[in-house]
Amino acid sequence: MRSSPLPRMSRRGRVTIGVLIGVFVFFTLLGWGVNAWTDWLWFDEVRYTQVFTGVLATRLLLFLVIGLGMAAIVAGNLWLAYRLRPQLRPHSAEQATLERYRMLLSPRLGTWIALASAVIGLFAGLSAQSRWSQWLLFRNGGSFGVKDPEFGIDVGFYVFQLPFWRYLLGVGFTAVVLALLGALAVHYIFGGVRLQGVGDRMTNAARAHLSSLVAVFVVLKAIAYVLDQRAMLLEYNEGAKLYGAGYADINALLPAKEILAWIAVVVAIAIIVFSNAWMRNLVWPGIALALLGVSAVAIGGIYPWAVQTFEVKPSARDKEAPYIERSIEATRAAFGLTGTKSTGYAADNLIPPASLATDTSVVQNVRLLDPQLVSETYTQLQQVRGFYDFGSKLDIDRYAVSGKTSDYVVGVREINYGELPNNNWINRHTVYTHGYGLVGAPANQVVCGGQPYFVSGFLGEKAQEACSSQTEQIPAQQPRIYYGERMEADDYAIVGQTGDRNVEFDRPTSTGGEQYYTYTGEGGVEIGSFSRRLLYAIKEQESNFLLSEAVNDDSKLLYVRNPRDRVEKVAPFLTLDGDPYPAVVNGRVLWIIDGYTTAATYPYAERVNLQAETTDELTGRGTFQLARENVNYIRNSVKATVDAYDGTVKLYAFDDTDPVLKAWNKAFGGELVLPKGDIPPELAEHFRYPADLFKVQRNLLTKFHVTDPGDFYSGQDFWQVPNVPDAPDSGQKQPPYYLFTQFPGQESPRFQLTAAVTPNGRQNLAALVTGSYVDGRPQLEVLELPDQTRISGPTQVHQQMTNNGDIRQQLNLLSSNQAQVQYGNLLSLPFADGMLYVEPVYVKSSNQDAYPLLQKVLLSYGDGGSYVVLANNLSDGIKQLVEQGKRAATGTPPPSTGDNPPTTGGTSPPVLTGELAEAAGKVQSAIAEVKAAQASGDFERYGRALKALDEAMAAFQQAQAAANPSPGPAPSGSASASPPASPSSSPSPNG
Predict the structure, then answer these.
(1) CB 410 within 8 A of CB 438
(2) 306, 684, 755, 829: which one has the fewest Cβ atoms less than 10 Å from its Cβ?
(3) From its phi and psi, is residue 87 left (phi > 0), alpha (psi between -120 and 50) or beta?
(4) How far apart (Å, rounded) are the C-alpha atoms in residues 763 and 720?
(5) CA 151 to CA 245: how far, in whole Å?
(6) Is this model's pTM higher than 0.90 or not?
(7) Is 526 helix (H, G, I), strand (E, B) or coil?
(8) β-strands 341-344, 777-784: how paired?
């Protein structure tokens, strides 16, 4: 007897392998079970168990139905192939070789078939369960009330039905191919198909079986051609550089698909008939399949290519015009651009008007604080303890204080767990459990040498610093922050205590001590019992849940504490905005998160990548980067809130007409999302136009503001988003900015998101795009300038202001080896048929723990270069601009910009005497004091020194004018012989 090629495994070896497999399966199931159980407890805490059960049930359903269906199809065909095996097989070397495989398979054929089918079904089920969202939309989706322009089918079919139909078709193809390959293998092993020997190479039974599977495959191909006709409206049109079927698609490819569908049906019938009912061979079925392949290439490939090349390309503008119009209309509808209000703005006034000095709607509301720059200032001035942090970017919101509404820069004082004094398990999870207070400051006001004027979030009952409000102007009845943006996935907190001793650090006291606290909110999962502690000890792989005395019978576990993660878990069907923001609403600190419903199958609409469209200078700096999701439909359909104290999550329908939101709400019982009427008015006052949606819409408007197909095809009127003004070579786009202001055509000031755009390939200003809410509805507006406008764009304005001779010298004075200049948002403000540019200038010492202070304001009016000032504050800058405008109106030459006048014949400058020499000496002394203040790092002294320098320079100019009508040379080392001018856009950090 011939020995086996492989050694036989011992009984001990088989037992060892069995135990290892059992242990692996046990721990896999244990991990899955622990995660499922803790997820259920978390969803029960937030009262959204319908999401947990709905998603889980749908996944299990798809896993079982698709997995069992795939397994049944494969198993049935394998078993049928075995049952159709010939009882007598001719003798041949081939059959002798196959006999050993028949002897191996035959005794346990059912087991082998079941095993192979189970593996296939398992992978099919795992793939299917990930399609739970497609199935829920397929089942619950309704009508959009909009029909596609080619077939007249409701858009709901494309959004809700088509994706799942195409998936099912793919499952069908996979099942038939696997069944065909498996059946062919069984037929070959058991003699139904032979490669050698005399007679037929295939039995009648095998031929009938295999040809039927091929026919089913061809029928599925016919169905695919029909679905492809609908899916053509989603494809990219190379001729028009847009999405949606173009001229060649509609006039060549569409009829070709229909012809191919009919050919496929005929081929399927021919395969059945020729293989079994008539000739009973594979020659004619093979010819039929070849005919289908040749037809697919010729009719579906060559013919559309020829139409595109020889008919469309020579006159693409005219041929593609109707289809470009379809894409424009669909894109504007799918991305909410249809209601965009476009207004012309002449911008022909280049001289600063006198009304700037008396304006109350624009100038008084100019935002000077940059939420990105002043985050360091907030941290240093409001930190109190080293483990408090405000993040790398603050937020902008508006509040009505003392009857006046204005925008505020707000931030939440959170725990930075990486900076804890003793970062052990007890401190991290049971002592330092929460932050404290929402700190706010008016966005248009600075005090004490450039600091924000803090009005809220104080750690004591009253503010203790002279540079802050003495009372809470934005009072929060519950200021503690248990849920915040700084919290990572492993930053869970264990709260609750037995007895009277508080163990959670609350805040430092005014006497230098510390106050402790015990959480009393409803949030958190109870972990008092041993089983709960064991459960979470396994989940977190932490034995202290069982061993530490800090975990007691009254303990609760707070986890998933990042507000964005919390909403994402509750509403997994939403795409969330990357910039959640806090607000005090009815005495509670709430996180507000904008939620989007999206789709990728809106016919003819432009398809964009959310990550690419929303990335700019601020991405990753206090904002979350969106996933790489391709969409061609988006709505800000949900406003979600998370209570910063107890973690309560609420979803409010904001766009109650959105069919996608209706489908999702229906899928989870109809009560998942609260109706729009339930939004508290106090909460609605803090809603703001979401930044990521605005970026997508702004970017699309750079092209889709053009609605004429011919003009769109030429692309001559396209715009572009400018790069960051102070770093144009970085390639980063200028972020939009929030303002509380009034633009032309608006009846009153609004809190709006604003962005400037420039003509494609040029840097002058083309338009301002704004997004705001009017009567609770989103409103996009475009303030469009004439094509040949002289108004500079943000990058040009920045360069013009910072290259001004006088301003350049003053900026150089501000920056040194001990300090650097930083620039805030460059604001573009339309005013009096002209354009006002405002840019705050911050100075940050290079000393450790230094923070930026607002020291100057750059202003420009008109074309960006003619009227420029750098002032100590906005009020002074406006006065200087108005004065320049008055001089221009009367024909008086503007004051010197600091450039020395040329000397004639090489004569030396005159010697300064009398009052002029005294004034020059004061300027020199003031410059020396500025340098000394810079070196000391004392910013209050630095601010006083700069003010004294400005006064000395002004006095020198007056003395100079009195001594000699023509301006004399500036004193050595002085910034300028003229008083400092006003703000400019941002140069490099080092000035």
Answers:
(1) yes
(2) 306
(3) alpha
(4) 9
(5) 12
(6) no
(7) strand
(8) parallel
Cross-strand bridge partners of residue 588: 478, 585
User: Average pLDDT over the chain, rounded to whole?
Assistant: 85
DSSP 3-state of 650: strand
Model confidence pLDDT, tens digit, residues 749-808: 999 999 999 999 888 999 999 999 999 899 999 999 998 888 889 999 999 898 888 888
SS3 626: coil
CB burial of residue 247 (10 Å; 0-12, 13-18, 19+):
buried
Provide the 3-class DSSP secondary structure of residue 480: strand
Are 407 and 443 a contacting pair, CB within 8 Å?
A: yes
Q: Could you give the 3-state DSSP secondary structure of residue 260?
A: helix
> What ranges in 586-652 are assigned the alpha helix state H?
610-614
Cα separations (Å) of 802 from 274, 426, 632, 894?
A: 84, 53, 41, 18
Q: Which amino acid is at 15?
A: V
Token reading at 224: 């695919």
DSSP codes joined into one string, 81-141: HHHT--SS----HHHHHHHHHHHHHGGGHHHHHHHHHHHHHHHHHHHHHTTHHHHHHHHH-
Q: What is the pLDDT of residues 719-733, one digit of tens each?
A: 999 999 888 888 889
Burial class of residue 359, CB neighbours in 10 A (0-12, 13-18, 19+): middle
The whole-angstrom separation of Cα 35 and Cα 535 is 9
CA 208/CA 202 separation, integer angstroms: 10
**Pairing verdict, β 819-823 and 827-831:** unpaired
The residue behind tokens 């392949």 is 293
Instruction: Specify the higher pLDDT residue, 16 or 337.
Output: 337
Token digits of residue 97: 């070789």
Cα separation, 458 vs 447, whole angstroms: 17
For the segment 266-289, what is each residue's pLDDT rounded down to a tens digit?
888 888 887 665 555 566 666 777
Residues 6+ apart with CB under 8 A from 598: 575, 610, 629, 631, 633, 634, 635, 660
Place of tokens 């979803």: 651
Model pLDDT, residue 465: 61
Phi, psi angle pair for 516, to nearest 5°: -115, 165
β-pair type (395-401, 493-495): unpaired
pLDDT band at 909 (very low <50, low <70, confident <90, very high): very low
